[in-house]
Write a structure and sequence with these properties.
The protein has helices spanning about 10-15, 55-70; strands at about 20-25, 30-35, 40-45, 75. It has about 80 residues and is of the alpha+beta class. The two termini are about 20 Å apart.
Length: about 80
């Protein structure tokens, strides 16, 4: 989790049992959505059959949509 560079607000949310969705750039350049929680970091979302989304805004949009329908109210790191 240290390599993600969590803010104080994100760290506090995770300590309370929450999740934070982070859009991550990978080789390509492609973008995927990571879920950060007490149990660690996992790839939450990427297009079927691909390593990532072709643009950051599409990954961010999908992260926001997943957060909106999630029962546990995850945070989504703001779009830069």
């Amino acid at each position: 989790m240290d390599t993600i560079g969590l803010t104080k607000q994100e760290s506090a949310h995770i300590k309370k049992g929450g999740r934070v969705f982070v859009v991550d750039k990978i080789d390509g350049p492609l973008w995927r959505v990571l879920s950060v929680s007490k149990t660690g970091v996992e790839v939450l979302l990427k297009p079927e059959g691909a390593d990532g989304f072709p643009d950051k805004s599409r990954a961010q949009y999908n992260a926001l949509m997943i957060a909106a329908i999630s029962v546990d109210r995850p945070l989504v790191r703001p779009f830069n």
